[in-house]
Amino acid sequence: DPFFDSIFQMNAPMIEKDVTLKSDDELIEIRPLPADGRPDDFTGAVGDFQLDAWNAPGQWQTGEPQQVRARITGSGNFTLLDAPGLVPADSWKQYPAKNEFTPRDNASFSGAKTFTFSAVPRKGGSQELSLAFSFFDPAIGAYKTLISPPKSIEVSGQDMKEEAPAPVTPAPGTPEKKPGTELVGQRPSPGPAGNLTPLVSRPAFPSLLATGGGLCLLGGILALARRRRENPQRIARAAMEKAAREARQLASQHAAAGDIPAFFAAARLAIQHRLGHQWDQPPQAITLADVASRLPADHPVTRFFQEADRHLYTSTTRPDELPRWRALLDEALASLTPSAR
Questions:
Q1: What are φ and ψ of residue 265, in 5° steps?
Q2: CA torsion sign, 165 to 167 to 168 to 172?
Q3: SS (H, E, C) 198-241
Q4: pTM score, whole prediction
């Protein structure tokens, strides 16, 4: 841990390096097991072994299995040491054994291996039973077969009939496959070997990382644009601008037609939409009194509302003044900025 390293090593500089340690070479000789004199029951055990003890029932019944226990001690390759066989072999049928190994050193080179297996006598009468196993003794460079002292047992019952060998049936020929009948999961040849290089060490990883960062940035920009597009204040301002623009266009149409009362009504509504958005009031409720209380008397909005009220309550109209009124309307709308509250 860097924190404890700094305490116990007093901030001593350390450099981590990969170091390969190698011992001096030594010449060893590996000899193969000799083929001459190899017993038939040899299973590969190499070492020095002894049959320490074994036990078998004294009374048997032909065809009835019973258990036999045997313990082999010594040193060597216990992994390849199989259970000893019953002698004579033709009088017994022996089943696979279970084994338990008890090591006597840390390397499990020496110890004791106990075998437990079932056997069935094939012949009745008085018999002598022994156990035998073979191994290779490297000390003398030869195979050894150890046979235990015989035990007398009594087997009751009739001799079992010899089991006839199972008839050998010829292997069926491989049917000819028709084109297009292969299963979907079959692969006629192995696929290409996979790449075991870590993802962070592959050349394409920086590109993938940059692509992922770009997608994250793009997602943030799109989310920001969506929030801005769905902003209630922005939506309300857009609606106001649209209503004011439509009222302004309608006022221009009435002015072109010479309809002065309709011109003032539409122009007043365009200004009211802007004022209503700025003052947070319903547009149609804004009157000259509201404008006069908030804006100076010489303000273009105040002067336009005064002209609109004067023409609303008088029948005297002068169409030649339309250009001046339209210019005053444009000045009033241009003056309505957010600072005109």
A1: -65, -45
A2: negative
A3: CHHHCCCHHHHHHHHHHHHHHHHHHHHHHHHHCCHHHHHHHHHH
A4: 0.43
